[in-house]
Amino acid sequence: MRELKFRAWSEETHALYSSDDIREFPLEEVRNGDVWTFEQYTGLKDKNGKEIYDGDIVKFKDCVFIIGWNDKHARFGFMPVKGCDISMTFSMKECEVIDNIHENPELVKEEE
User: What does the pLDDT average to over 96-109?
Assistant: First the structure.
């Protein structure tokens, strides 16, 4: 069974908090007006052993994509952003987490 872990992005502080950080927050602080985005650990790690979360920006060769939840298939999947041939086959262990959608959203803007 995979480990259930979350991280949280705060729109107020523009900071990403780990599961350990979240446990330390007083509940009142979480409820008082800040907008939080909670992201779940996929249970997978990249080629460097880094945990892959919902909202991560991941690279495989020249392809960049976003990890996200797929409601239709009830699983985590990837949404191609740049340089992707969606018919290619690869393992998440061959990919590298390069950032996340909150701290560097420009990485996922469409090429013009």
Answer: 88
111: confidence class by pLDDT, cuts 50, 70, 90:
very low
Q: pLDDT tens digits, residue range 11-32?
A: 888 999 998 888 887 766 666 5
Nearest to 63 by CA among 76, 51, 81: 81
**1, part of any domain:** no
Question: Residue 111: inside a domain, yes or no?
Answer: no
Classify each residue of 43-71 as buried b or exposed e, where b means 16 or more C-beta atoms within 10 Å of its C-beta. ebebeeeebbbbbbbbbbeebbbbbbeee
79 within domain boundaries: yes
- Domain containing 59: what range? 6-104
Q: Give me the DSSP letters along 31-69.
A: HSS--EEEEEEEEEE-TTSPEEETTEEEEETTEEEEEEE
pLDDT the model gives residue 55: 95
- The CATH number covering residue 14 comes to 2.30.30.290
- Token couple for 106: 């420009």
